[in-house]
Amino acid sequence: MMAETPYLDIHTHHAAVSPGVVSVYNARFGEPVSGNRPVSLGIHPWYLTETEYVHQLALLEQALQSGVVTALGECGLDRLSGPPLPFQLRVLHQQLDLAEAYRVPVILHCVRAFPELISLAKQRKNTVPLIVHGYNANEQTARQLLAHSFYLSLGTALLRPGSNAEKCLAFLPSDRFFLETDDKPVSIEDIYAAASRQLQQPLPELKEQLMNNFQRVSLGG
């Protein structure tokens, strides 16, 4: 008898490990992490400062060298919070350089800066997977991101009928999306149930599909 495919939570800030769930834990700088689960680490634009980022980049590279960190992020761009966008872009470039050097996928935060993010991707032509987490923007932006090889991760917005995330789920290619809890007080099982219902796709099939996506973007890390 084959083992049941676990749920995959591609991005979570919850440290607790749930049975039957593989989750990519977003660690904080200075937090001890073990190697028994996937971990991401990155400089979030909300907490980006001129005085700290060089040291954080060095810590990030050390974590990548050690193999404890299997994804970079969340990092990205936020027009509504954090330092000026040109500074955010400069540090994001540096983090993407690290992702390329160590062959790890990137989990991206983006708020009202999708044109800049897409322009950056066109300029860089990254070869590692770029995953926009918590996607809940419009269909046009989603299609532009897909056209430039981004993956989209959907979260609790799927629990709100009529959300942009729900509308986009209907046309996302099966091999280009993930599901997540982020920092919300919900279970990944509830988000999968909503996606399964909206897609009219059996839950075991959806779980297997997203785990296959994860194995593909993990780059053997």
Automatic annotation (TrEMBL):
In which residues is a divalent metal cation 1 bound? Answer: 74, 182
Binding locations of a divalent metal cation 2? 109, 133
Keyword list, A-Z: Metal-binding
- Molecular function GO terms recorded: hydrolase activity, acting on ester bonds; metal ion binding
* SUPFAM superfamilies linked to this entry: Metallo-dependent hydrolases
Q: Write down the InterPro entries for this protein, in alphabetical order.
A: Metal_Hydrolase, TatD-like
Put simply, this protein is called TatD DNase family protein
